[in-house]
Every structure is written in C-alpha cells, then in structure tokens.
Amino acid sequence: MDRFIALLLSGVAYGAILALVALGFIVLYRATGVVNFAHGDLVTLGTYIAIWSIDSLKLPTVVGYAFAIVAMFGVGVVIERVAYAPLRARPPLVVVIATLAAAVVIEGVLAVWQGSSPKLLSSPVGNRVWSIDGADIAVQRVLIIGVAAVVIIGLMLVFARTSIGRQLRAIATDPETAQLYGVRTRLMSVLAFGTSAALATLAGILVAPLSAADLTFGFDLMVSAFAAAVLGGFGSFGGVALGALAVGLIQQLLGGYVFTGYSETLPFVVMFIVIAVRPSGLVSTTASRL
Amino acid sequence: MTTLLVRPGRRSAAAATRPPAYSGGQYLAVVGFMAAAAVLVPLLISSDANQYRANLWLVYAMAALGFYWVFGLGGRFAFCQTLMMTVGGYTSAYVTSKLGPEWFLFGLFSAMVVCAVLAGIVGALTARAQDFYFAIATLAVSEIGTVVFEKGGGPLGPDGTVTSISIPQIGHTVILSNRGTFWLFLIILGLLLFLGAFLERSPVRRLAIAARENGQVAATLGVPVVRLQLGLFMLGSAAGGLSGALIGHWNGVTEANSFGMELSIGIFLMLLLGGLRSMWGPIVGAAFYVGIPQVLNGLDKYEQIVYGGLLLLVIILVPQGLVDAASRGARAGWRATRRRPQPSPGGNDA
Hints:
The complex is a heterodimer. By secondary structure, chain A is mainly α. Chain A is 71% helix and 3% strand. Chain A is globular. By secondary structure, chain B is an all-alpha fold. Chain B has 14 helices and 2 strands. The longest helix of chain B is centred in the C-terminal third of the chain and has 27 residues, at 225-251.
C-alpha cells in the first residue's frame, strides 16, 4: 500500500509539472498559432536563472524564484520581438523554424554561462518528507501539486472571465476577425510569449529540487508534455491538465508495477496509441487553431 | 469534328514546347553536380579532417534528401528520420556480421528494406493523423525506439552499442581511406539524386504537391493521398536507413544514440536552410550544416550562439531557403541582362 501511495503521489506531481509545461506552449499556440520548440530550453533557462539568483545573487529562495519568473517573462518578450515579430506574416512553419534557431541560441548561452555540469536548485521546503500510511512523500511533490493546481485554475479563470482571456480566445478562434474588432493582436502575442516563458520557468523551478538540472532537462520535459497535450486534444486547458495527469499516473503506476525499466517510454506508447486510434486526442476541442 | 494530328516531322517542335519538368535538365544537373563534386572536393580538400567533413556532408545529404521526400514532397513531418538511421545501421551491421563483409551492398539493401517496412507500419497506423499529430507520433516512435535500443540485448550488445562493424567492401575491394569512402558516398548519393530526378519528372511530384497543398481536394480529384504520402514516407525512411548504414560501416560503430534528437532537428534545418521546394535544397543545406560549425570553429565557446543567430538571420532573410534565393537571384540577373536597352543605331558611340 505504501508503495502505491508513493507512486500515486509521484504520478500526480509529475503530471502537474507536465501540465504546467504543456499549458505554457498551449497559451502560446492558442494566441499565435506557433508551436514553440524552444519551450524546453525556456524551462532550462528559467531554472538556471533561479539557481544563479539564489547561489550568486544570494537572494532568498522564494525571491529568487520570483526573480526568475519575472526575468523569463522578459526573455519571452524578447523572443517575441526577435524571432516572431519579424516573421509574423510568414507561414507558421517558418516561425517554428525560428523557434528552433532560438533554442540553439538559448542552449549556446546556457553552455557558455553555466557550463554543462548538472546544477542543484534549493527549495523553500528543503528535503522534508511526510509519512502517509507508511509511504515517505517529499513535501516538494505536495508543493508541486498545490502550486500547479492554483496556477491551472487561475489560468482557466483568466481565460474564461477576463478581457485579456476573451481577447486571447478571440485570436485563437479567428485572428483576422479579432483584429477587425479591435483586439490588439500584437500586444496579445507579446503577453502570450511572456506568459508562456513564465509558466515554463515555474515548471522548471518546481521540479528541479527533486533532481539536478542539466542542459537537456527542459527538452525532456517538453517532449513528455507533448504527450499530455496530445492526450488532451491540444487546445483545451482542462483537457491538457487531464492528459498530463494521465501521463504522470501511467508513467509512475504502470512503470512502477508492470513495465519496470521502460517507464519513460510509456507516455510515448500511450501517445502513439491515442494518435493511431483517435487522431484528434481524447478530449475534443473546438478551437480553430487545431 | 476536329482531329488533332501530330506529324512525325514535328517532333522537334513538340520537344521545344515541353514543360521544363520533362526537359531532362534534372538528370543533367545531377551529372553536373557529381562532376563538380568529383573535381572540386579532391582539389580543395587536403587534410583528413576536412575529408571527413566532406564525407559527412554527403552521407547527411542522403538522410536529408530522404526527409525532403517525406516532408518537402509528401508534406508529412516525420521526427523519426534519425531512428531510421539507427535501424539502418543495426540492420546492415547484423547482416554483414552474419553473412560476411563481402555482403556489404546486400547489408545496405537490407537496411533500406527494413526501414521502409518499419515506416510503412508506422505510416499505416497513423494514416488518419493530421500533420502535427503525425509529427508527434513519429517523435513518440523515435523516443520509444531509442529507449528500447539503449536497453540492448541480443545482437544489439549490452547497451545498444554495436562495434566492429565491417569496413565497406565491394567485391574484393576494401574501402579503408576517407578518400575512398568519399567516392563510395558520392556514387550512392548520385544514384539517390537520379532517383530524385526521376521523381521530379514523374507525375508523382505533381500529385504529391496536390496532396500536400490540399489533401481533401486532391482526394476528390482521384489523387491517392494516403498511398502517395505513405509511399514517400517509406522511400524517405529507406534513404535514412541507407545513410545510417553507411555511417555505421564507415565509423565501425552504431549506438542507440548515434543519431539523437539534435541531428533530427539538424536534418530539418538542413532542409529548411537549403530549401523545401527543391531536391537540391537538402544537398545545399547539409553542406551549410556541416560546414558552418567548421567556419565558426575559431569562436570557441561562442560558436553555438553565433550559429543559432546565423540560422535565425537566414530564416528571416531567405525563408524559402538558399537554393530558392540563389535561383531567384539568377533569374533576376538573367531578366536584367535581357532587358538591358540596345544601343540605338544613331546613338552616340563616341
């Protein structure tokens, strides 16, 4: 029983992280139609900025986290200005390639700035562990679940109830008509890039204390988050959150009990089966960008 | 009722009005490319390190040409080209280890067949998936394959590393040197390019473009969209397998991670940098991909940043690729030459 509880909570926590990563690129996708292949590198960069601000600037842990999130919002804006704005009128594929080039630049900057050795990020909850029915649960995992739940619900509320959310949804449905109705598409794309980068950073700094961060840390998360997004129908926030939860649980529970040694392949097996059987994802969505 | 008669004597006039696709220029271009490479590369390259890069260019160009058939013509973005390279490397290594190094060419053929069959299975299972989902599905296949290969076992060795792969051998001729390998790779790339030229001249290209641009409309007009895209996926994957097999025999080793995600994105960049709309795009793009890091070598640790910035610049300035930019430039130059005003008879020549 204790093993089951430990695996269950690990699965939920991992799913929560994947949801944050997936929501980061879906916010951007819905607002601009761009699948950002630099998203994984934004996760890594944000985490490294947090590590640097805590270790080198000697900021308190939570302040360092906040600094990294704000700084990465700025990085997102810069990427929008440099890699997206000049290509706005070009086909989406060209923009996707530009994000790949941005990823190459980010990786290069990280390698020069921080080197390739893995780094550790401190956590405000340290290495504390709770014992639940005999299972030792890292408090960090509980923190991940709590923060992710708040952020996901907050994001859903922002998109459903606020003016900015309505504008972003309008752009996702029909960018030209939205522009004719006075939606500031340029401002929205800047906001989307910034928010996406901030969400990537949040995911990185939540998961990094559980394992060391290296230069490929974010890319691996991004690839698993794709699985979550595909399961969720690549558009609806709720669907993606559910997809992420499913991926996390499948990986931890099936990987822990049945396919030991192959747990990292399970999200991809599920993703492939879903695409083969139901190519538009398990949760259908009406967003026009699909 | 009017009957259209084509007289035998008008054959030359009919040939003159042929569309450019049937003019035979593609075959001549392949011959010209091979002749230029055969003359210039040995002339310009003296060091073994540069010969290695030239060989890498040719063998990457094969994989990128395969990706052009899958994505540039077929319109299906497949992330699994590097997995096909790995599978090709393993297959050929296995065949030559069982049958002997003199079966090298059969090993290459087996690698192509196995990769084509694997692509056929993946493509058939994901035939209904839209473009982005197809890309993600092939990414999944690639990740699964890499993890399974890393576990090793059987002919793959303990951690998916197959070593001591036989040196390329044709008949009794063993190809040991990098220069010898260059000739082998150039001939094989030339054969692939002839196949590419054949496709460019065939109705397959037109039908594939119709299917790529609007699959639904093309299907209503009788274009076998799924079959066509599946066929191109299999063909492109076979080229990827061939490339991986050649690299395996050349380096003597194939690992599960020999061709990782970085190269997968690299092949995409080769195609995009060179140009998506021509089979020459991947050849030029591969040269850029292999050559630019060498040019930037002096920048030391800043190399990757400058490389990424350069890529971004190329994408912004020439989004259709270098081949397209060059052909546009050549056409513009040609037009400018033809429009140059003729000197008037009574003009001032003094």
